[in-house]
Amino acid sequence: MIGESVSRKEDLPLLTGSGKYLDDLARPGMLYLGVVRSPHAHARIGAISTAEAASLPGVAVVASAKDLLEVSRPIPPYKSERRFRAFDQHVLAKTVVRYVGEPVAVVVAVDPGRLAEALEAVAVDYEPQPAASSIDAAIATGAPLVHEGWPDNVAYVSRAAVGDVDAAIGQADLLVVERFRHPRLAAMPIETRGVLAYIDDSGTLIVVSSTQHPYHVREAIAGVLGLAEERLRVIAPDVGGSFGAKGQVYPEEILVPALALRLGRPVKWVEGRNEHFIATCHDREQVHEIRAGFKHDGRIVAIDDRFWADFGAYPVQEDGVTLNTINHLCAPYRVEHYRNVCANVVTHKMFSAAYRAAGRPEAAFVMDRVLDIAARRLRLDPAEIRRRNFLRPQDTPYRPGLTYKDGVPVVFDPGDFPGAFDKLLKLFGYEEMRALQKQRAGGIHRVGIGLSCYLQGTGLGPYEGANVRVDPKGKVYVYLGCSSQGQSHATTLAQICAQELGVPLDDVIIVGGDTQVLPYGVGPYASRIAANAGPAVARAARQVRLKATKVAASMLEAAPEDIRITAGRAHVVGVPALGVPLAEVARVAVKSKELPADPGLNACTYFNPQTVTWAFGAQAAAIEVDVETCELRILRYAAIHDCGQPINPMVVDGQLHGGIAQGLGGAMMEEIVYDSQGQLRSGSFMDYAMPKAGQLPPFLTAQLAHPSMINDLGIKGVGESGAISPGAVISNAVEDALADFGIAIRELPLTPAKIFTLLKAAGAYK
User: In this structure, what CATH number is given to the domain that contains residue 25?
Assistant: First the structure.
């Protein structure tokens, strides 16, 4: 069962319209909530006039922070121990707004139409203040402070150092010195955010949210509203994508339950798409200044990087993303002298948090750009300079001298990185594409080839748990502390349970996304569910199987070690006819007066990994550049990834395909743009372009299997992996195609307009 490409159990109900997303849900007497948001990036709040809005028919509540005292506590931090400078993020801004879109007041009405009218009737007096809307503006002398009381706009400085960088760079034959900028991006799930809250018959507050993290939401609601968690249940229904965007606690997730409690009626809020652009987290904006020393043969002698990360107004996840960049930048290469320093900067923009791959695409973009620049100057093939710097199989497991963000020293899993890279080149047809490039040289449609390699830390802790129970009808329920937003948990985790327990896949039912089904859970991020929930499911299923063999042995008058469970039936080994259905075993396990085991066929276990497991991957692309129109066309794209033990190879391919597509969007067209006043200039799909299916080629993919040494199933993560390399691959390919013009690519996305500007500056158009 594990390792088979079985069809996804999720697909049929969703494709036939049976899914239940947040906006599909309604309750009798339900009210609708809307948020009055700041139109300014930085302003002091004066009077808020609510009387006109409150007088409109059908309006139940109009409130600002001073009216809604139950939400006066700040939103609890993501981490219990803060290293960043202290800040408070409130559900409703009290005296100052710090980004366009920050909630200032709330309106509740009987229907969406009356809600819209009332929102327009709320008048807020603002005293606009100067805004620091970019990294450069925020770190400039005399910059406007995002948080009063801070000496500057640097929330924290993150660091790592290995070896003697300065001495090593002094011994370099070639020094590459560059400045790179990765753009600000936003996840665009097909479903925006939403929250529904109501009080059930038992007096429990039910909060339904399209979130990745029901337990984190429960903790935040309880903390702000002063509720006992036992009287609060958070449910994540079917969720139409997230990619990290729904991984934070947002003000609306506290406002909605607060108003439901105040009014004693169900309240629902659904985010509009334009609202999503200004009110849901962004990511990826980093500026790097790097020095890289090389020997004449292409070997790296030292990497010295410093960068600035734009966190927006509130650094809600501290430096989790920037530590990813630091720890992933040099992998999978041998770099014995490495230094990296990051200033985590706050600005007057929507706050930044983790977006699929979280810090790793930035690392790949910088490192792979440096390798290609060095290869060109040293007259080496880009593939060859990578081969000369790879860690060798005999080097692994390898300790680069870094500490991961979980506090554990980094140890790269065993693997054959050069061999895997050669498999990529063969899959891609590297020599064939180089020949095509020569044929097209000097023409209008030029061809370039880009490469990128990465090592990805996956399966970050802490724990995940699973409760496996066989019901009296033989169905197996797996209760999880994590929810799904399209990752195929209902299939892959069911495959693990089915194999470990010995039951048909169709008999396994996955239940998650509900704080009532398991006491504690963490949730999907950091490519962690297969690697953490998978082992938890396996261990619980094994315990249930052991219990079932004892009960069945008693029923069949045999020794427990002689009992086997296959296809949902317990039987004596070698005598398949002598057996009983697992459903009957489950009934006996509950009702028998003399049980050889505890009542019921169920077990609950948690798996807590020591640290992450490292997965290797590489990608390659051939890009056609039209030097007249400056349009790009992807001729071929290939990717390999080491997912350890693949649970479902088809799902692995699907995750790679989706990640690559998202990565290509950030490489070629997507960018969140703010002006100098902190106003969003790319706040709709008219200005924020995303890739369409017709713009993407078929992706060539291959899977490698070097089992993880961290978990007993050998699983490594894959959910974010496809998104790591496209920015690096595309930028290297475009610069390669236009090498004879001498252009240098130092930022993304590579839109036709940007390529035209580069070519014009290089004298291509005379």
Answer: 3.90.1170.50
The answer to whether position 4 is within a domain reads: no
User: Amino acid identity, residue 380?
Assistant: L
Cα–Cα distance measured from residue 565 to residue 549, given in angstroms and rounded to the nearest whole number: 8
Which of 251, 279, 307 is at the close of a domain? 279
118, 162: one domain: no
Both 223 and 298 in one domain: the answer is no
Distance CA 186, CA 189 (A): 9
Spatial separation of the C-alpha atoms in residues 509 and 266, rounded to whole Å: 30
Of 228, 252, 279, at which residue does a domain stop?
Answer: 279
Give tens-digit pLDDT for 138-164. Answer: 999 999 999 999 999 999 999 999 999
25 class by beta-carbon count within 10 Å (0-12 exposed, 13-18 middle, 19+ buried): middle
- Verify that 476 and 594 share a domain, yes or no: yes
325 and 211 belong to one structural domain = no
711 pLDDT above the threshold of 90: yes
Alpha carbon 425 to its chain's center: 28
**CB count, 10 Å around CB of 693?**
6
Q: Is residue 1 in a domain?
A: no
Instruction: Please tell me the distance from the alpha carbon of residue 292 to that of residue 743, in angstroms, as a whole number.
Output: 20
Strands 699-704 and 632-642: what pairing? parallel
CB 614 within 8 A of CB 412: yes
CB 240 within 8 A of CB 190: yes
As to burial, measured by CB atoms within 10 angstroms (0-12 exposed, 13-18 middle, 19+ buried), residue 399 is exposed
Strands (E), 528-678: 563-566, 569-572, 575-581, 601-607, 613-626, 632-642
**Beta strands per DSSP E along 678-736:** 699-704
Q: Which residue has the tokens 């349970």?
A: 497
What's the CA gap between 620 and 428, in Å, rounded?
Answer: 7
Q: What is the CATH number of the domain that holds 475?
A: 3.30.365.10
Residue 536's φ and ψ, nearest 5 degrees, are -65, -45
Look at residue 399 and tell me if it is in a domain: no
Domain co-membership, 30 together with 81: yes
In three-state secondary structure terms, 654 is helix
Torsion angle defined by CA atoms of residues 471, 474, 475 and 480, in that order, rounded to the nearest 10 degrees: 50
* 3-state SS assignment for residue 719: coil
Taking each continuous run of H as one helix and of E as one strand, the counts in the chain are 19, 28
Instruction: Provide the b/e sequence for 504-527 (b: ≥16 CB within 10 Å).
Output: ebebbbbebbbbebbeebbbbbbb
Q: Give the number of domains in the chain.
A: 4
pLDDT per position as a tens digit, 631-679: 999 999 999 999 999 999 999 999 999 999 999 999 999 999 999 999 9
Find the mean pLDDT for residues 319-332: 97
**pLDDT of 576:** 83
**Domain co-membership, 194 together with 323:** no
Does residue 499 share a domain with residue 444? no
Chain position carrying tokens 């009381």? 149
Expressed as residue numbers, the domain containing 501 is: 464-607
Distance CA 283, CA 311 (A): 8
Residue 154 neighbours by CB distance under 10 Å = 17
- Which residue in 506, 488, 500, 507 sits closest to 549, CA to CA? 500
- CA dist 385 and 569 (Å) reads 57
Q: How far apart are CA 221 and CA 202, in angstroms?
A: 19
Q: Give me the helices (H) in 637-685, please.
A: 649-668
Q: Based on the fold, state whether residues 216 and 338 are members of the same structural domain.
A: no
Residue 407, in any domain of the structure: no
